[in-house]
Specification:
With 186 residues, the protein is an alpha+beta fold. The chain has helices at 7-15, 26-36, 42-50, 67-86, 101-112, 153-161, 166-171, 180-185; strands at residues 20-22, 51-53, 118-122, 125-128, 138-142, 145-150. It has one domain (7-185).
Length: 186
């Protein structure tokens, strides 16, 4: 497979006033993957090897154990649990909702562990770790408000930082990611 040309999308990030640092090494990527128990899909891995976007709300992957990255990694599950607690959110697929809130949160978290892990890209924009292949859609995740934000990583970057409209970026979504696509489609 040919390497993606990341110069245009990464250049757009620079033009938007964000800093770009040197890319991550194989050793750094492996340490992050081992620590967080996921594998970077090839397109995100390749982009992060070319250059590392810096400054929040980009994740500080070189400081992958920091509270900033930890908060971003926990954001999707914490947001859904917030809606379970405060907005009576519950999926039929989780079975009958327990009466005790603590039990409902436990069941929700157990079911969320079965969903593909989301990798933070920028703020509350996430790329699914599974399937571990290029071309996964990017989701905007704010509690249970989940929408597509790009058919793939490149389209997402062109939407967030370039001149590709959101409508154009999501019109080509073809991959269905278990659980997350169901929330986005609901």
């Amino acid at each position: 497979m040919a390497k993606e040309d990341w110069s245009v999308p990464l250049g757009l990030i620079i033009l938007d006033g964000k800093e770009i640092g040197p890319g991550l090494s194989e050793h750094e990527l492996a340490a992050i993957e081992d620590y967080w128990a996921f594998r970077f899909p090839p397109d995100l891995r390749e982009m992060l090897q070319v250059a590392l976007p810096l400054m929040p709300p980009f994740p500080d992957w070189r400081g992958y154990r920091t509270s900033q990255v930890c908060d971003l990694m926990e954001w999707p599950v914490d947001g859904i649990c917030y809606d379970v607690e405060h907005d009576d959110f519950w999926l039929d697929a989780w079975g009958r909702r327990p009466l005790a809130l603590e039990d409902a949160i436990t069941v929700a978290k157990a079911n969320l562990k079965l969903a593909p892990k989301l990798i933070p890209i920028y703020g509350h924009r996430y790329l699914p770790a599974e399937p571990c292949e290029s071309g996964n859609p990017v989701f905007s995740v704010y509690q249970t408000d989940v929408i597509y934000y790009g058919a793939n990583l490149r389209d997402y970057i062109l939407t967030e930082f370039g001149d590709l409209s959101w409508e154009q970026a999501v019109a080509k979504v073809s991959k269905r990611i278990p659980f997350w696509a169901d929330l986005a489609d609901s």
